[in-house]
Amino acid sequence: MRGRLVAGNWKMHGNRASNLALLNSVLAGIAGLEGVTCAVCVPFPYLGEVAGQLKGTSIAWGAQNVSEHAQGAYTGEVSAAMLAEFGCRYVIVGHSERRQLYGESDAQVAAKFAAVMAAGMTPILCVGETLEERDAARTEAVVGRQLSKVLEKTSFGKAVLAYEPVWAIGTGRNATPEQAQEVHAFLRRKVSPETAVIYGGSVKPQNAAAIFAMPDVDGGLIGGASLVAKDFIDIVKAART
Ligand code: 13P
Q: Which of 61, 109, 135, 172 has CA 20 to 30 A from 129's CA?
C-alpha cells in the first residue's frame, strides 16, 4: 500500500564480498530510520545468501525478473514459486532494460505481474517512455498502455508502480520533479489513491529530496546510486516522511 519505499536495483552488478560489504554499510547507515521501507533487488544467484544476511533486519529484498510460466521446460528461467519459497517480497517486472534488450512485450509483462501476485509477492511494475515518445507528446499514451495491459489481466492490488522514463535511466539526466509529478498523478488516477508510485531514473543524493517532495512521488527505484552505500543511505533518508 501507499507508503514510502526506496528500492535498490543492483542490475547485473556485485559479488559475494561486495554485496556483504554494501549491505553491512547500508544497514548501519539506516539503523533506526523510520518512515520509509528500504529494499534491494539483487541478481538471482545471490538471492538466497542475501536473504540470510538480511533476515531480521529492516531491509527487504527482491528479484529483478521472473518467468511468466509456473514451471516446465524453460531453460534459464526462474518461477515466482521458486522466489516465494525463499521469502522473496518484491519482484521488478517490466523494467525497460527487459523490454528493450530482451524484447519483453506488454503481454509478457502482464503475465509476469500476474504470476508474482498469485505467488503472494509484491510486483514493482515499471513503465516509462523513450525520449522519442516524450518528444512526440506520447508519454501518457505509452505509460497508460503499459499499465492498461496489466490491469486488463489482474487487479493492481497492493503492487507498486514505478515510473522510469527510459531517457533518464543510467544517463545522469533525471526527470525534473515536475515532470515526475505530472506522470505520477496521471498513473495514480488509473490505479488507486492508495497505490505506491515510485520514481526511477538517475536518482542521486543531490536530486532525491526534490523529487520525493512531490505529492504523488512515494519514493524511488535506484540503479547506479544503490551500489554506493553512502549515496543509497542518503537517498533512503531523503524519502523519510
Ligand atoms: P539509474 O538510477 O542508474 O538511472 O537506474 C534506474 C533504474 O533503472 C532502476 O530500475
A: 61
CB neighbourhood size of 120 (10 A): 11
* pTM (2 d.p.): 0.97
Residues 6+ apart with CB under 8 A from 73: none
Q: What sign for the dihedral angle of Cα 182, 100, 231, 234?
A: positive
202 lines ligand 1 (CB under 6 A): yes
Report how far ligand 1's centroid is from the alpha carbon of 73 (Å): 32
Q: Which atom of ligand 1 is nearest to the CA of 225?
A: 2
**Grid cell for residue 144:** 497508460
Please give the average per-residue pLDDT across 227-231, as a whole number.
Answer: 98
Give the position of cell 554499510. Answer: 25
- How far is residue 44's CA from residue 63's CA, in Å, rounded to a whole number? 7
Q: Is 95 in the active site?
A: yes
Residue 46: closest CA among 7, 72, 66, 18: 18
Tens digit of each residue's pLDDT (9 = 90 or more) over 202-222: 999 999 999 999 999 999 999
Q: Is 152 a catalytic residue?
A: no
